[in-house]
Fold this sequence. Notes:
This protein is an alpha/beta fold. Helices cover about 40% and strands about 20% of the residues. The protein has 14 helices and 22 strands. The chain has helices spanning about 40-60, 65-80, 80-90, 95-120, 150-165, 175-190, 205-210, 225-235, 260-270, 290-305, 325-340, 375, 390-400, 415-425, and strands spanning about 5-10, 10-15, 20-25, 30-35, 125, 130-135, 140-145, 165-170, 195-200, 220, 240-245, 250-255, 280-290, 345, 365, 385-390, 405, 410, 430, 445, 450, 465-470. The strands form six sheets. Strands 14-15-16-13-12-18-19 form a seven-stranded mixed beta sheet, sandwiched between helices. β7, α5 and β8 (about 165-170) form a beta-alpha-beta unit. The protein starts with 5 loop residues before the first strand and ends with a strand. The structure holds NADPH dihydro-nicotinamide-adenine-dinucleotide phosphate (NDP).
Amino acid sequence: MTSYDKHYYDGAWQPSTGSETIAVISSATELEIARVPRGTAADVDQAVKAARRGFESWSRLGVEERAQWLEKLAAALKTRAPQIAEAIAHEVGTALGYATKVQVEFPIMMIGMNAKFIREAKLQEELGNSLIIKEPVGVVGCVTPWNYPLHQIVCKIAPAFAAGCTVVLKPAEMAPLSAFFLAEAAHEIGLPRGVFNVVSGSGRVVGEAIVAHPDVDMVSFTGSLQAGRRIASVAGDGIKKVCLELGGKSAFVVLDDAPFDKAIPAGVNNCMQNSGQTCSAWTRMIVPRRRHDEAVEMAKAQLAKLTLGDPFDKNTRLGPLASATQRDTVLDYIETGKKEGAKLAAGGGRPPQFAKGYYVEPTIFANVDNTMTIAQEEIFGPVLSIIPYDTDAAAVAIANDSPYGLAGGVWAGSEERALDVAKQLRTGQVDINGGRFNVLAPFGGYKKSGIGREIGPLAIEEFFQLKSIQR
Ligand code: NDP
């Protein structure tokens, strides 16, 4: 993989004011695959100044021109798709086939879709004697995590650009390469100076410098609750708008009349996607007590079909976790689950067959009580908790007994019954009876899963402010 020794801002590759670099490590081989600069607050300051200058002209550009830039960016990124997928398979451990489709092709498509969304957006309306105008917020500071590195960046920058905002991005230290591929693509198409600016580095230094910078008007963050709290407080100090996409502990409620042969495998697949490193994963499967043991057996059978292996092997469904830290955190949670009395039904440790790589066996706990740590805290690994319930009301109460409220699922014998339960869940998304992910639907959290929405046409609204002109 290519290493980068410069940040990208003001339409050019810029040397870092710091001398340190960050090693990008392959989660499968544990070897270094590339390096990127460890930026400083001074780099951020230059990048924000460039974004501010860029905003003056970008915000005034016609909608059609901005839409065309998005389409050009998507096309330039498409030519790099294989390299990006390869980088993400190394960085995150995502199986290459899944990485290609979900981690790369999907976000590239989303860039193009934002062109359509902004062309169709209603940017002003009459209300009484007022003209209400939507205007871009300004310079947006974006801070992103490592689990779906390109996707998380695109969820922010594509609607921001569409709305007329410029961006300063700090990608995750563990998976920064997508941001550099994007910068290369932006440079190649000649995206106007200052529209897209990347400074790599740590959250503590570069991330905080972006969030605290007085010339950043809005912060869009995806990551942990802990970092989200800190970011909200720093941004709050500057009275900045924030959009926070935080963690989840989503529940999948299986009602007693659901077709278990479809529902249980779907629940397992959802929980395990990207080896459980997915914020919206259904990590709690809530099943009728009298069918609990049957559900556990079916879940184990499905799990056995998800081959654990090298992300570059075409038979692999689940790769290693992204880092040694992530692996150790997940293993600690598994130990806690055992100590707190959950019944280990599958997995539960490090798979012996891999000499290298941050692998964890996909794991199922049965007879989990929702008050246990493994049912309350986000593990961010391949660990499913199966929780029994006695009545529908109890199932809803268990699902809602979580600090988070990001996603969830319900499967019932009829749409009516599933919908009834779905409406009672305090969560930003619910898929019923196998409903598929919809790229038009807003995505985001209730409760401690965040503030604001991403994805689809409504995501652009986050990057506007409203002006009322009376006449
Ligand atoms: P972190 O919160 O640790 O990091 C996310 C990003 O924030 C990284 O770029 C990180 O930098 C940076 N950061 C950390 N602290 C600060 C700070 N004080 N100021 C500014 N930036 C900071 O999360 P992870 O990267 O570990 O990602 C996993 C978490 O993200 C999980 O909790 C998961 O649920 C959540 N997530 C939520 C999603 C959603 O849409 N709701 C989607 C994906 C993940 P550095 O690179 O140095 O760590």
